[in-house]
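Quick one:
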Amino acid sequence: MGRVVLITGVSRYLGGQLARILSQVPTIDQVIGVDVVPPTVNLPGITFVRADIRSPVIAKVLGESGVDTVVHMGVIATPRQAGGRAIMKEINVIGTMQLLAACQGTPSVKALVVKSTASVYGSGPKDPAMFTEEMQPRHAPRSGWAKDSVEVEGYVRGFARRRPDVAVTTLRFANFIGPGIDTAMTTYFSLPVIPTVLGFDARLQFIHEDDGLEFVKRAVLGSIPGTFNVAGSGILMLSQAIRRTGHRRVTLPEFLFTPFGRSISRAGLIDFTTEQVRFLTYGRVLETSLVARTFGYEPMYSTPQAFASFLARHEVSVA
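Output:
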């Protein structure tokens, strides 16, 4: 009998793309996509279930379908996606707790893959040159998506202790970028005038959407337990990235950075939270040898190449 995989957040871009990829794998019999709203694009071969992971109904879905692998792609990155910060936190944290409780009570579940973020390391002046997986943050996140992700990872570790028979994989991704995905960072680099913090030039890493999804696919197929940093090789300085967009750059004192950014944000995805300002001030770099060695895969796109693929989509001149 083949495998049954459940994906949360399937109506968002990455969740939908992953569902398409896994539906083509011969050893997977069924891919179940869960979200509170239906996908806006056609996902052939996918069984869509309209459900809220904050509700106990998710346990019924897992049990009745005989799900063996759960892929949690449902953590929301910006308050505007959720309808406010309070709802965002409830979906991210309470939703994860409910999902893990459902997994714990479902004997058929043998693998859990969690899409997390490198934001759990925070950003600040005392950061190391590169973060390895065992390092603790020196500037722990205090708000927003990053703080939610820290809490989510804590609950995931607790679940792993309670269900040692389940292979739990946590992937700490650098910022996703590419020709298809829209995020706060892609919106930031699409601004006609891009603000930066005076006196700083952050070091950035990206993961191309195709490479990120390949790592998730391999985690699903291989049931590889552990926590892994995932990023494309190399770095871009923030100033280099802005030059490659061809857009204007304006440097501002930190206290002016947030209001200026909000005033010129066109797409409504940029919140310029404290954590985002710190990231754009200090940056963050991941050490990724563990994931490459364990998964047997090196990203096809380096950080500069991933950024170039985003620019090509937007037909931005490259310096």
